[in-house]
Amino acid sequence: MSKHLYLIDSNYILVKIVSLLDKNKEKAFLVSGREKEGDCIELEEYFDMEEYVQADSRNLMQIDRQFFYAALKGFTKENKILIFIHSHPNTRKGELQFSAADDNYYISLLKEAKNIGYDLPLIFAVINEEDIIFKGFDKNGVGIVCSIEEGYENYSEKRYSIEVIYNDDFEKGVIYHKANNEAKVVDRETAKEIKHWQSKYESNVLSKLQQMAYRRMITDSFPYREYRPNLSARNYMDNKTLDNLQLMLQLGCNLRCKYCYAEAGTYLHKKNIIMTIDTAKKIIKSLLRKGIHTIRNIFFFGGEPSLYPEVITGVCDYCAELVSQGKLESMPTFTMVTNAVKMNEELITAIEKYGIKVTVSIDGPKEINDKLRVRQDGSGTYSVIHRNIERMQEKNAAPVMLEATYTKIHEKNQMSRDELRNYLQKEFGISTVYIADCDGSELEPDAKEDSVKDYIHCICKTMNENRKLSADIGKKLLQVQSNLNNKGYRNNLFCLAGYRMICVLGNGDYYPCHRFIKNADYKIGNLIEEGTLNLREYTNKDNYDKCRNCWAQEFCGECSWDIFSSGIEKAKCDDVKKFTAYSMLAIANLSEKQRAFFYNEAIGK
Description:
The protein is an alpha/beta fold. Among the domains are: 6-146, no CATH class; 155-221, no CATH class; 450-492 and 536-600, no CATH class. It is built from 19 helices and 21 strands. The strands form four sheets. A nine-stranded mixed beta sheet has the order 18-17-16-15-14-13-19-20-21. The protein has a seven-stranded mixed beta barrel with strand order 1-3-2-6-7-8-9. A hairpin with a 4-residue loop joins strand 19 (501-504) and strand 20. The termini are far apart.
């Protein structure tokens, strides 16, 4: 049985040689190799023999014999293996083979090698732009089987996994490398060409050399990075950090909104659980005892939180006291979602003093809002909400955002989502308006919103007209850019629930977030009675086949509760990928004016 030698081309010598081939004439190269363990030869350097070959009258390549002889002596002295490569231009796919002239070259070279005492294997090859074949001989002229290996076969295919993103709306495309979480900007035609080769590579129709060239392109563009560890609750415990503390001030509400998913704020709990300031302090003290010294955001929620202004004020005051004592490293950001029906002076003062970021829920003009957001007696709320927003604005405590729920009532009143957004922006002078479709009730609109399609349309329109980025688009682009900039940890988890965020009730019970509190099975523990803090990861993308291999894994923050209740939905996955792809294209194609806004205003804030 013939000996088998494996040529290891970690330096992509053969790919470099292919780039030097001439379609109009034959070429020759000498390659040096070094013997390694396991019948392997590591290719080290190559030499273009352009100066030492010429064509004869039949246009066949003739090699300078003296050069060959000198090369053999040098290889013998340095104990290196000689590989002679001869190109065959214009050979069709599958027709590459050794010619009679090639046979003459290697027979002559074998004789010269024997005469000077060269006793290492001699290897000959013929090559074209797509393929290479070998003939090898030992010192006695006995044939040796040779095959090429890259030296990177131990890499997972993930190492070569890229997503090629381009669109006719944009001049530049993006190549995204999942393993590195890194993107490169290329022109659109280059992106198309890479996509073409990627398709061939994934269909396994490329020759060995073409596969090597494709992988070389990727490894050159995206050098190997050290393994990035997974996100976990332990990361945040070690860093003494909790991103989001949701305080459920009560499980009750002063309204009876027609579509409420929280069952009038009760979340199916039979009794209202009200949080006192003493309880809130005990919760924060418990977190401190468990090593949490940074709480980035405290979210006042419910039920309706505005009914307990003394608790909101007390929590803000207490955090300021803890910061002054060095027990909290920095002041949290405070946020609140409210129906704004009851906004007393104490609460408005606290909003102004502590910069509480308030979102007010209102569903549109009076004739629509008052059919949806109603009191317990069925009366409307528009007028009081309008008046309270004005009071907040007068006291430098203006809401940062309005949120509305789009329903069948809006459709019956012939108000589109854009018209609803424009109305609220103009009526209240608040630019950021979030609109969510009513879901899971008889008021669900007939025509579902395609928010991703609308986002893509807005991006394309903004880019084509070279307009300043809206705050909404800027924030969405920033979200993608922030994930791209994350080189520390893999974003292997979905939303923050359970490991960067907890939701605490007025009795100390805590859950991954407010969406989970309908089901007691998801209760993690009790911060007051048990004094324990068990941060945990509830949903890991690596546990789902669809997610594990998805190129947009780093950018997906799907709701853990939705995954538990509905599973991985293809439509949502497709939306994440579209959203991410268009965001990357937008960032790559920003004009100078737009780029200045994005980096100075959006990122700088």
